[in-house]
Amino acid sequence: MAGPLLLRSLFSASSRKSLSSHLVRPPCLSRGFTAGPASAAAAAATDAKVFLEPSRLRNVAVIAHVDHGKTTLMDRLLRQCGADIPHERAMDSISLERERGITIASKVTSISWKENELNMVDTPGHADFGGEVERVVGMVEGAVLVVDAGEGPLAQTKFVLAKALNYGLRPILLLNKVDRPSVSEERCDEVESLVFDLFANLGATEEQLDFPVLYASAKEGWASSTFTKDPPADVKNMSQLLDAIVRHVPPPKANLDAPFQMLVSMMEKDYYLGRILTGRVSSGIIHVGDRIHGLRSKESGVEKIEEGKVVKLMKKKGTNMVLIDSAGAGDIISMAGMASPSIGHTVANTEVMTALPTVVLDPPTISMTFGVNDSPLAGRDGTHLTGGKIGDRLMAEAETNLAINVLPGLSESYEVQGRGELQLGILIENMRREGFELSVSPPKVMYKTENGLKLEPIEEVTIEVNDEHVGLVMEALSHRRAEVADMGPVAGNVGRTRLSLTCPSRGLVGYRSVFSSDTRGTGFMHRAFLSIHVLLEILFFPFLLFSLLFQLHLVVMS
Ligand code: GDP
Asked: Which residues form the Tr-type G domain (predicted)?
């Protein structure tokens, strides 16, 4: 077993410099994999037991409400740490993410800062992709909460923050977009206290409440620990944020002497390498060539899925995959070599027979039926037409996307359960682009029965509209059983009103297009899952029955 003295940085500046001439692209890895410093190091040095010292690691998630500037911030951080970024929105690698300007899947990348290695996890800010946030919070110890200093915390800020606090992460608050004319120091103080209240309401610990605050303009590429709109040129960069991460986020608690264990948090399929499993090494050390096995927890105990060998170990550096020879506890890595384990499974040394606990996901709230296109125009648009092909594609999606459940239905149809219309819409669009032709039913809200009571999902809705549209929006939403929780003018935006409401998901199905036309396309609406409540009609039903019988009784008596 390697002791701490043997530890050596994989990516130290000196080795990078001296080994840069060895960088070659292996012939079998076509998709942006680079045989980086680590594999070159293996060729040059005989010591294969090189991995990162846990005290020099920081694992951090970047969380935010949609459009608060998270992607812009990630671009800046990558650039500052020397990553070669070919275009804007470097972390949004899925084509639909770039087209729509939203992050759909969580991604991890690592950047070197001074003597440290920061594993940064980029997460989606849209509630429909909340499952992506849930599955990565267990990999990190800290979170950078990005909040638009003009808008303040919104529905998804609360959702992602709740998850982060629940997992005991140490947060750092970054008030972004301070370059905007409407953002003043007073406004930042206001937003800071709103966020503090949110922390307190979500049950943050004393330690979590002691979060540092930074002021930033991701667009201009700087962050500062004191309020300013124009920092001096020598500190007009992201150094203060990177230093705050190193100072404030604790290094991973890692036991290098225990046998190797890793919970799979992400899974991709590669044409050459097969399954690429990504996760955080929870204990031990792993080397290329080690024998490992995949484990799954079942009610009856732990089941062994497959035994195999580590064929490749990889780490994302900036926008490139870099091959490494070994990795130690606390680090976030990817590996190839196993064909069966998936997200939520444990990959471990063959002597280990215990599976790591998996993350608990919120339940799906909406479902749609996917089936074969049986219209007279069938077969004109796509090449994958049969129920079998559609089923295989949906099952493959459910394997990599934990927030989606697929249940086989009647006559070659499948019930697909997810978190929202956008999430299922993205899946349909992806399938359409891949050449699938299918028919889909309108979305249905999913109910749950517990102790004989029917429960339904309730969502928190934040709406921002021009003052003249408030009446129309309120009327439409009251018909959909929404209840207003808060209402007021938007700070720094004259003539705009913000409404916070709670509404059953069934009331919101199909509302987005009505909202767009009611507000002439000028309104914003954000939704996030809040809780599950008893269906109100169920409570009313006994009451209605009783009053009907009572009236009948009165009629008979008279
Ligand atoms: P995300 O949805 O959280 O990833 O947000 P994006 O990074 O896509 O940013 C949303 C919008 O805000 C884009 O139009 C950005 O150009 C803009 N933006 C991001 N950061 C800043 C900032 O610091 N200042 C200003 N004025 N705009 C910003």
From this structure: 55-253
User: Which of ligand 1's atoms lies nearest the C-alpha of 102?
Assistant: 2
Which residues are within 8 A (CB) of 243 and not within 5 positions of it... i.e. 6 or more apart? none
Per DSSP, the chain holds a count of helices (H) and strands (E) of 15, 28
Residues 124 and 399: their CA atoms lie apart, in Å, by 19
Residue 393 phi, psi (nearest 5): -65, -40
Q: Do 338 and 267 meet the contact criterion of CB atoms below 8 Å apart?
A: no
DSSP β-ladder status, 366-372 and 301-309: unpaired
CA of 65, closest atom in ligand 1: 3
Residue 62 CB contacts under 8 Å (≥ 6 apart), including other chains: 70, 73, 74, 120, 121, 122, 123, 143, 144, 146
> Which residue has the CA at smallest separation from atom 11 of ligand 1?
67
Mutation probe of ligand 1 site: the residue of 63, 67, 144, 222 with most atoms within 8 A of C-beta: 67
- Tell me which residue has its CA closest to atom 18 in ligand 1: 69
Which residues of the chain fall short of a pLDDT of 70? 1-50, 83-106, 125-127, 130, 492, 535-558
Q: Name every residue whose Cβ is closer than 8 Å to that of residue 258 and which is 6 or more positions away in sequence.
A: 283, 284, 329
Ligand 1 center from residue 76 Cα (angstroms): 12
Of 204, 110, 121, 187, which is closest to residue 152 (Cα–Cα)? 187
For the purposes of burial, counting CB atoms within 10 Å of the CB of 309, is it exposed (0-12), middle (13-18) or buried (19 or more)?
exposed
* Amino acid at position 51, single letter: F
Domains, the chain, in order of start with CATH, read: 54-248 (3.40.50.300), 261-349 (2.40.30.10), 366-376+388-445 (3.30.70.870), 450-534 (3.30.70.240)
Ligand 1, CB cutoff 6 Å, lining residues: 64, 66-72, 101, 103, 125, 176-177, 179-180, 217-219
Written as six digits, the tokens of 355 are 């599976």
Q: What is the pLDDT of residue 9?
A: 34
Looking at the DSSP bridge assignments, the partners of residue 213 are 173
**pTM value?**
0.77
Structure tokens at 152: 């303040």
**pLDDT at site 246:** 93
